[in-house]
Give the backbone structure.
Amino acid sequence: MQRQVALIKQSLFDQGYLDEQFMELEELQDDANPNFVEEVSALYFKDSARLINNIDQALERGSFDFNRLDSYMHQFKGSSTSIGASKVKAECTKFREYCRAGNAEGCLRTFHQLKKEHSTLRKKLEHYFQLARQAGPKETARRPK
Amino acid sequence: MQYQISSTFSSNPQSLFSLVDMAEVLRPEMLDISNDTSSLASSQELLHVLAVDDSMVDRKFIERLLRVSSCKVTVVDSATRALQYLGLDGENGSVGFEDLKINLIMTDYSMPGMTGYELLKKIKESSIFREIPVVIMSSENILPRIDRCLEEGAEDFLLKPVKLADVKRLRDSLMKAEERAFKNLMHKRELEANDIYSQLKRAKI
């Protein structure tokens, strides 16, 4: 089962959902803090849900306050970077470029794509963490004598 | 390690007995100042870092980085809270905060309200805290920003996401600085002790 978990993780990297930052997070896990990455991930999705909501509302109002939108996206990009959410981060960058260009249409399109990537990543990570839990702690675990 | 060095002694004849005792204590070979003196930071206390970031995710991340690097961590979510923590918010003055031991402040640059840059300035204006190294963290590699921070006295400027290697490097350089300060202090004490001992010898005690 460990192998399955490893393969899933590898595919997340290969398909560009995650980048090296995710590995940096894993390096910070230890026996005393075995769920650190999952905790950070949960925090990320909670925080980004709030940001998505804010942006949704701002866009729905119709008035494109590009400064405000850019500010939300700066936060979104920041936390996406910190967790290694590569595709989400890329959409954030695109969104910000459209903000700076004052391109409302571009913003809407990109935001739609961003929400898709975000949702996909969330599902994939949930699946990954669930399997990782089931597979149990890695080779560092002590075997019973 | 015991350091019972007093840098004052009385030439009052009535305290002759205590001078003899003191001469015994102050014999250089009795002073255990070995070269592998541990700094205060590593042997007794951990480095205490105050981290400031408005992002929940980044706060959790930096806290972990610092814990893994054996630091004591206090995390706050804004520059205003950082100032409150340090007693620099003007409410209580700095009364009671002189004993607060912070070895390093790490702050995000872009924060709503007060920025990390403004926080840096406030800290450098404080007579109590201006000596504390302040490190700025930012996701944006903007040279004028970096220059401005360094000019204002920032110890370092780190690009986010911060790496464990960055934190370890900071910690090591801080520990070395503490150790140097500690060794200088002990060396100074040793010189004073030697001086007193020589004077006592000359006085033929």
User: Anything to note?
Assistant: The helical segments of chain A are 2-14, 20-27, 36-60, 66-83, 86-100, 104-135. Residues 139-145 of chain A have pLDDT under 50 and may be disordered.
